TrEMBL record:
The keyword Isomerase does not apply. Belongs to the cytochrome P450 family. The lineage of its organism: Eukaryota, Metazoa, Spiralia, Lophotrochozoa, Mollusca. SUPFAM superfamilies: Cytochrome P450. Its cofactor is heme. InterPro entries: Cyt_P450 (IPR001128), Cyt_P450_E_grp-I (IPR002401), Cyt_P450_sf (IPR036396), Cytochrome_P450_fam2 (IPR050182). This is Uncharacterized protein. Coiled coil: none annotated. GO terms for cellular component: cytoplasm. It comes from the Eukaryota.
Amino acid sequence: MLSLIFSQWHRNDEKDTNFQEILKSLCLRAQCLKQTFPDVIPMPSFLQKIRFKSVWERMRLQRDYQRKLINFHKDTFDPYMIRDLTDQLMMYVENGDDKGLFASDDMENLLLEISGSGFEETAITLTWLLGYMAMYPAVQGQVQKELDYVVGRDKDPCLDDQALLPYTVATICEAQRMATVMPFLYPHQAVKKSMLQGYDIPKDTWVLCNVWSIHYDAKYWKNPKKFDPTRFLKDGKTVLIPDFFLPYGLGMRECPGQALATLEIFLYFSHILHHMIIRSADDTHSFYMEGELDSFLHHKPKPFLIKAIKRED
């Protein structure tokens, strides 16, 4: 994410002190949000201040560092050479596309939010994916066979390969369906009295969408408890995404980072399987994962042990 926002970041930046400080900020924020439901159940302002004091301090430090990078971009900005998202935003403002409504603080806050987008959900999805590969070695083998055929062994997968790897993409989709990391979408509230499929919904009623029920409904999915990537393939060659597949929600409140999260998960997953074979820690075929809900209603796997074996070139 930081490479997309600030192109100065490279592969070895995880050794950089500033990078570690930003990572601490994101981890702390994720941990804090899991403790209660700050966006669902309001808390007294004085309790919010106590609870989020350390988070705000880390966000301030991250803003200070980002401000330095933004200033560097301003000093070196070239409209004919867009390097990253920061340059794109500056071009957006300079061309007047924001109609004078985009302030400097808006850019800082937006970049701060984007840097942590999908931080928790992407990690949970990848954890499920690795566990499923240990559970279903035949599926893993098919993904690796496709990667070897399309990408080859002498280079890494890239975004251009995604359209040519339908089984790999279908495997990711099936893992998202089976895991359903967000079993319930964020609560909505009826702004007026409504009726939905014969049910009266009074004004101000909280409404939750049960995505888990949809993803395991036998009316939509044949053998819904079976891990089967081919359900997302048409004629075994083309990825087909049905309307009742909702890992990112639906409609106006659909996750705005869906496209970005999809690319991130694809790159991580394809790189890992391109280089590693995932097995259960004891090499048995009885490996099985169990899920649990954390306090922020993420469906995540309980801790499990696997091993990664380097593939031969």
